[in-house]
Amino acid sequence: MLVSIGTKNRAKNAAITNIVNNYFEQVEYIQLNVPSNVSEQPYSDEETRQGAINRALNALHTSGAELNFGLEGGVRTIEGNMYCCNWGALALKDGTVITAAGALFLLPEQIANEIRSGKELGPVMDTYTNEKGIRHNKGAIGVFTANLVDRTEMFEHIVKLLIGQYQFKKEHE
């Protein structure tokens, strides 16, 4: 089975391969740098969800794979507080799209203010932690949960939701 992944981000790729390998055999992966067609820093659940859908569909159109994943992180505001939000999409070969969302966690006001000023979370986190490529491993969630949850684990939950919905759909066609 050919599975395409609409990003080359290491944390997102690990989440997809970790989960897909538990449910399918003889999987071949292709990692694609496809656009999300949304802002570099999505600012709502709707925009973040659309970015995941766009990545999954762009991966499908590029690869023609049986399963095509798009994962997208963004931010949303609730009562003046900024939270990270995360969405995933699975585009099937027939064009069907399945979506799911994951964990929400509060960003400290210092980080939220940087994002409100127009910056993207990934680079802000690199500066905040004095590390490079935070988004490829522990992510903001790792930093702000004292490493109890990393970015791969956060996205694994979404991938499980997508695979579960896919399997339910197949069983009930």
Q: What is the N-to-C succession of helices and strands? A: EHEHEEEEHHHH
The count of domains is 1
CATH domain topology: Maf protein
Mean pLDDT equals: 96
Tell me the helix content: 40-55%
EC number: 3.6.1.73
InterPro entries: ITPase-like_fam, NTPase/PRRC1, YjjX_NTPase
Cofactor: Mg(2+); Mn(2+)
Catalytic activity: XTP + H2O = XDP + phosphate + H(+); ITP + H2O = IDP + phosphate + H(+)
Tell me what you see in this structure.
- It catalyses: XTP + H2O = XDP + phosphate + H(+); ITP + H2O = IDP + phosphate + H(+).
- Its cofactor is Mg(2+); Mn(2+).
- Residues 6-161 form the Non-canonical purine NTP phosphatase/PRRC1 domain.
- GO terms for molecular function: ITPase activity; metal ion binding; nucleotide binding.
- The protein has one domain: Alpha-Beta Complex (Maf protein), CATH 3.90.950.
- The longest helix has 21 residues, at 151-171.
- It has 173 residues and is of the alpha/beta class.
- The protein has helices at residues 10-23, 45-63, 109-116, 121-129, 139-144, 151-171; strands spanning 2-5, 28-31, 67-78, 81-92, 97-101, 105-106.
- Helix 1 runs parallel beside helix 6 (151-171).
- It contains six helices and six strands; from the N terminus they run βαβαββββαααα.
